[in-house]
Automatic annotation (TrEMBL):
The lineage of its organism: Bacteria, Pseudomonadati, Rhodothermota, Rhodothermia, Rhodothermales. The keyword Iron applies. Specific class of high-redox-potential 4Fe-4S ferredoxins. Functions in anaerobic electron transport in most purple and in some other photosynthetic bacteria and in at least one genus (Paracoccus) of halophilic, denitrifying bacteria. This is High-potential iron-sulfur protein. Residues 43-111 form the High potential iron-sulfur proteins family profile domain. It comes from Rubricoccus marinus. It comes from the Bacteria.
């Protein structure tokens, strides 16, 4: 017995599939394809030595700052990423950090 699908069912399914594809494209355009939001998702994090991870813990690094006015991106120790969508670094400890991260070594950038 052949599997018959009415024209109406076919068009409804086709439209639903198009909506799903369009929605995923919009999410990517709204930041879904940008820089990682956690340091562990950054390139190079897996190769950070255990001793260096301990130093990160000593500085109490977190991926989400508790204070919007103090984050890695506006810290004097932040090393900006080389490319768009990449993670930055820190002069205080090894391994990648995210721009919205924070640690107890935060220091304001000097006035320009």
């Amino acid at each position: 017995m052949p599997n018959s699908v009415s024209r109406r069912d076919f068009l409804a399914r086709f439209a639903a599939a198009g909506a799903v594809v369009s929605a995923s494209g919009l999410l990517t355009a709204c930041g879904g394809g940008g820089a990682p939001t956690t340091a562990a998702a950054c390139e190079g994090y897996a190769s950070v030595a255990p001793a260096d991870l301990q130093i990160r813990q000593t500085f109490q690094y977190v991926d989400q700052t508790p204070n919007a006015a103090q984050n890695c991106a506006n810290c004097a120790s932040y090393i900006a990423p080389a490319g768009e969508g990449a993670c930055g670094g820190c002069k205080l400890f090894a391994g990648p950090v995210v721009a919205n991260g924070y640690c107890t070594g935060w220091a304001a950038m000097p006035a320009a």
